[in-house]
Write a sequence for this structure.
C-alpha cells in the first residue's frame, strides 16, 4: 500500500457530509453481512439477526438511492463542466446509445417479422390441408359424375372405390366424405352461382376444415363434401417447424355475459367458446444465444355451419403459436439448402465487426479529446481576459494544426476587434440612412392610382436592393389626359436611386413648365436628355418611356428613349411601341420621334423594365418577352393588379431563387 494512501482516505472522509458518512457506513455494513452469509449458518435464519439483516438491506437501498442523486448533482456541477467530460458523454450518446437503440429496434423488428412469418407459414400449411380436402372432394365428385350415378340420397356414402376416399386419409386424420351435404355453404363464399367452397367452418365450439364441390351428372348435379375436424392430432401435423399451437374458438357474446370474458372486434362482441391445442409438441431448443422465443398470433375467419337468427355469418378464430428464429430461417431459406445458414452467420459476423468498429471509434474519439480540450481551455482563459476588457491578450500557439490556426485566428480577432466594433457602428448608421432613403423614395412614386374614364391603371415595383433604380409615374395633365412615365436607371443601389430622384424632379418640372403639356412627348424627352446629360457623370444614363393618353380620343402619344418597347395587346395582336430614340443622359444632342396609337376597347398596355424579362433559370435561359406575352395573354381578362402581380410572380418563379437580380417594374393599363 502506498504511504500516501491513508492521507487520501482521511482527506476523502473529511470532505464527506454527515449524511454521506452514515450512508457509506450502511453500505459497508451491508457488505460485511453479505460476507457473513457465506458462513455455514445463514444469518437470515438466526432470529433477531435475520430481522437486522432485513432492516440494513432496506437502509442499503436507500443509501444507494441517496448516493445516486448525489452523483447526479456532482456530475452536473463538476464532471460535466469540463469540455473533455462533455465530449466523452457526447461520444457515448453519439456512438453507444444509437447502437443500442438500433440493436433494440432490430430485435423488435425481427420479432415482428418472425411473428408474421410464422403466421404466414401457419396459414399456408392450414390452407394446404383445406386444399387437400378440396382435392379429395373433387376426385369423388368426378368419379361419381363419370359413373353417371346422378344425385344420391342425402348423406349417402360415396361409391366404393372412389379415389377421394383414400388419397388424403393418411394426411388428414378424421377425413369424412359425404354426398349431397353442405350445399348451403356454396353461396356463402363466392355468390349464388358458386360450385365450390373450401375453408374453415365452425359448429358450436368445434372447427372443421371443409370443402364442398358441386358437379353436373347425367341426370342431376352431384354435391360432395369433405370435412376434417380440427383436433390436436391434426394440429400436431400442422407447421412442424413451429412450437406449440393453440386455436381459440370464439362465439357471439350474449347479452348479460360477464364483461371480463367479452372482447370487441370492430362493432362486434365475442367470447371464447373453446380451445384446441397441440399436446405433444414442445418448443425446439435454442440453437444459439440469439435464438430467442418468438410468440405470434394469427386471426382466421370461420364460417358458421348453421346460422341462428341475428347471428354473424363468420366468427374470428385466433391461432397462437411459438417458434424459434432458427427454425423459421431454415424454412425461409430451405431453397438455398446449406447456404441458408451460411448467409445468416455472415450477417451476424458483419454486425459484430460493425460493433467492434464502433467501439474503436469511441476509444479514438476519447483519445482525441485531450488535444482538443487543451486548446479549448487556453481559448477559454483568453475569452475571460477579453471579457474583462483586456484586448491585448494573446493565445499561445503550440502546434501547427487546425487548433493552432484557431488560436492564431483568435489573436487576429482580438487585435482587430476595436476596428470591427467601429465598422459595425458605421454599418448600423448606413442601414439607418438606407431605411430613410427608402422612405423618401417611396414618396417619389405615385401615392394613388389615376382615375380616367374608360381605362384602369395599376403598377408594381419590386426593388432588388433597399432602394430602386426603376422609376414610374402618373402625371395628371387635365380632366381627360394622363402622362405615363417609366424609366430604368443604369446601375443599382443609392447612385441609381439618386439619379431616379433627379429624373423625377426634372420630369415634373418640365410638365409644370409646359402648362397643360400640349407639346409633343419627343420635345419633353429631348429636354430631359439634356438635363440628365448635364447633371450626371458620363457613364450614367437611363432608358425612358413617356406617353400621354387622351381619354377623350382614346389616343396614346409616346416616345421610347431606348427602353424595352411596351406591349399594346388588342385581340391576338401584340404591337411593340418602339418609336423614339436614344437613351437619355448619354449624349447631348439627340433627336427623338413621337409615336401615336389609337387604343381600342378591351385592349391592354404593358410597360415594364428589363428586370422582368432578364431573370435566368438554372440553365441560363432568360424569361424573355415571349413568355411575358404568354402570361399576359393567359390573364388578359384579369384586373390590372392581378395581371401585374402575375407577371412579377412568373418571372420570380422562372428564376427560382429568393435573391432578386434586378429591379422589377410593370405598368398595366386596361381599356374598358
Amino acid at each position: 500500500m502506498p504511504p500516501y494512501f491513508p492521507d487520501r482516505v482521511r482527506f476523502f472522509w473529511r470532505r464527506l457530509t454527515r449524511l454521506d458518512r452514515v450512508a457509506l457506513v450502511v453500505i459497508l455494513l451491508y457488505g460485511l453481512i453479505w460476507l457473513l452469509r457465506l458462513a455455514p449458518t445463514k444469518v437470515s435464519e438466526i432470529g433477531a439477526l435475520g430481522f437486522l439483516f432485513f432492516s440494513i438491506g432496506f437502509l442499503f437501498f436507500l443509501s444507494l438511492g441517496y448516493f445516486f442523486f448525489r452523483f447526479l448533482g456532482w456530475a452536473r456541477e463538476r464532471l460535466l463542466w469540463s469540455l473533455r467530460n462533455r465530449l466523452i458523454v457526447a461520444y457515448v450518446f453519439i456512438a453507444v446509445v444509437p447502437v443500442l437503440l438500433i440493436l433494440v429496434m432490430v430485435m423488435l423488428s425481427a420479432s415482428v417479422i418472425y411473428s408474421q412469418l410464422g403466421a404466414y407459414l401457419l396459414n399456408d400449411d392450414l390452407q394446404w390441408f383445406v386444399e387437400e380436402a378440396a382435392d379429395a372432394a373433387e376426385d369423388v365428385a368426378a368419379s361419381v359424375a363419370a359413373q353417371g350415378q346422378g344425385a344420391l340420397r342425402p348423406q349417402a356414402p360415396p361409391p366404393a372405390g372412389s379415389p377421394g376416399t383414400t388419397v388424403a386419409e393418411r394426411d388428414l386424420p378424421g377425413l369424412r366424405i359425404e354426398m349431397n351435404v353442405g350445399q348451403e355453404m356454396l353461396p356463402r363464399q363466392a355468390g349464388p352461382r358458386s360450385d365450390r367452397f373450401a375453408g374453415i367452418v365452425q359448429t358450436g365450439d368445434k372447427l372443421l376444415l371443409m370443402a364442398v364441390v358441386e358437379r353436373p351428372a347425367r341426370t342431376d348435379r352431384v354435391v360432395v363434401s369433405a370435412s376434417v375436424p380440427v383436433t390436436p392430432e391434426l394440429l400436431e401435423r400442422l407447421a412442424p417447424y413451429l412450437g406449440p399451437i393453440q386455436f381459440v374458438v370464439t362465439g357471439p357474446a350474449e347479452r348479460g355475459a360477464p364483461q371480463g370474458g367479452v372482447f370487441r372486434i370492430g362493432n362486434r362482441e365475442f367470447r371464447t367458446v373453446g380451445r384446441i391445442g397441440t399436446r405433444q409438441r414442445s418448443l425446439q431448443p435454442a440453437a444459439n444465444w440469439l435464438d430467442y422465443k418468438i410468440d405470434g398470433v394469427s386471426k382466421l375467419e370461420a364460417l358458421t355451419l348453421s346460422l341462428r337468427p341475428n347471428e354473424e355469418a363468420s366468427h374470428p378464430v385466433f391461432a397462437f403459436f411459438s417458434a424459434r428464429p432458427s427454425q423459421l430461417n431454415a424454412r425461409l431459406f430451405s431453397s438455398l439448402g446449406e447456404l441458408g445458414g451460411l448467409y445468416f452467420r455472415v450477417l451476424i459476423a458483419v454486425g459484430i465487426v460493425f460493433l467492434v468498429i464502433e467501439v474503436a471509434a469511441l476509444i479514438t474519439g476519447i483519445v482525441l479529446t485531450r488535444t482538443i480540450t487543451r486548446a479549448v481551455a487556453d481559448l477559454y482563459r483568453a475569452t475571460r481576459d477579453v471579457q474583462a476588457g483586456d484586448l491585448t491578450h494573446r493565445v499561445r500557439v503550440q502546434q501547427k494544426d487546425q487548433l493552432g490556426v484557431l488560436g492564431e485566428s483568435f489573436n487576429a480577432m482580438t487585435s482587430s476587434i476595436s476596428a470591427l466594433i467601429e465598422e459595425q457602428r458605421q454599418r448600423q448608421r448606413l442601414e439607418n440612412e438606407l431605411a430613410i432613403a427608402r422612405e423618401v423614395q417611396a414618396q417619389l412614386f405615385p401615392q394613388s392610382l389615376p382615375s380616367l374614364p374608360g381605362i384602369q391603371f395599376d403598377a408594381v415595383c419590386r426593388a432588388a436592393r433597399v432602394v430602386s433604380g426603376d422609376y414610374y409615374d402618373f402625371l395628371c395633365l387635365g380632366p381627360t389626359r394622363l402622362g405615363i412615365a417609366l424609366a430604368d436607371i443604369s446601375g443599382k443601389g443609392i447612385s441609381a436611386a439618386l439619379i431616379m430622384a433627379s429624373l423625377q424632379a426634372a420630369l415634373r418640372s418640365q410638365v409644370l413648365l409646359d402648362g397643360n403639356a400640349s407639346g409633343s412627348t419627343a420635345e419633353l424627352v429631348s429636354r430631359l436628355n439634356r438635363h440628365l446629360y448635364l447633371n450626371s457623370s458620363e457613364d450614367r444614363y437611363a432608358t425612358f418611356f413617356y406617353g400621354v393618353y387622351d381619354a377623350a380620343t382614346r389616343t396614346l402619344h409616346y416616345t421610347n428613349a431606348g427602353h424595352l418597347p411596351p406591349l399594346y395587346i388588342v385581340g391576338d395582336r401584340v404591337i411593340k411601341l418602339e418609336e423614339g430614340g436614344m437613351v437619355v443622359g448619354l449624349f447631348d444632342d439627340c433627336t427623338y420621334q413621337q409615336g401615336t396609337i389609337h387604343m381600342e376597347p378591351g385592349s391592354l398596355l404593358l410597360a415594364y423594365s428589363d428586370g422582368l424579362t432578364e431573370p435566368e433559370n438554372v440553365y441560363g435561359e432568360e424569361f424573355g418577352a415571349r413568355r411575358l406575352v404568354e402570361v399576359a395573354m393567359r390573364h388578359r381578362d384579369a384586373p390590372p393588379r392581378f395581371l401585374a402581380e402575375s407577371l412579377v410572380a412568373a418571372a420570380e418563379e422562372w428564376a427560382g431563387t429568393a435573391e432578386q437580380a434586378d429591379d422589377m417594374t410593370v405598368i398595366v393599363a386596361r381599356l374598358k
